[in-house]
Amino acid sequence: MKYLLLGNDKKELKNENKEKYELDFNKCIGLIKASFKFDYKYDPYELEYLHWYDFYNDLESLSTSEFGNCCILNRVTSILNQEPKEIKDNKARQKLIEAQKLLSQKYCKQKEVEITKEQEESARAFYKSLGIEI
Question: Domain boundaries in the chain?
Fold first, then answer.
């Protein structure tokens, strides 16, 4: 969990737009498989037995590089971790924000939308008018 939370103990990562990113383990299975194959030449999901600590240590030790020669999982997390406000070029900043948006939609947990009491009552009244009790 710590790794998939992008190293943030508070379970959130904030960028310029106050977005919070938390990787969804189920959505990242493909990235994990590809990263393990890239770095260790094995697929952790095909092994008959893999102790959790071995999996965790391998996950924590995946390749990282500032020059882009690293596994796909770390490329995704590095994009999500990057602060847009640190980029001075407006076009590059916009590209990063767009990339973060696309990657977060594909690999991160989506925040749940809370509805107000008024919205809930309105929905109940609508369904009641249709003869459906919720």
Answer: 29-129
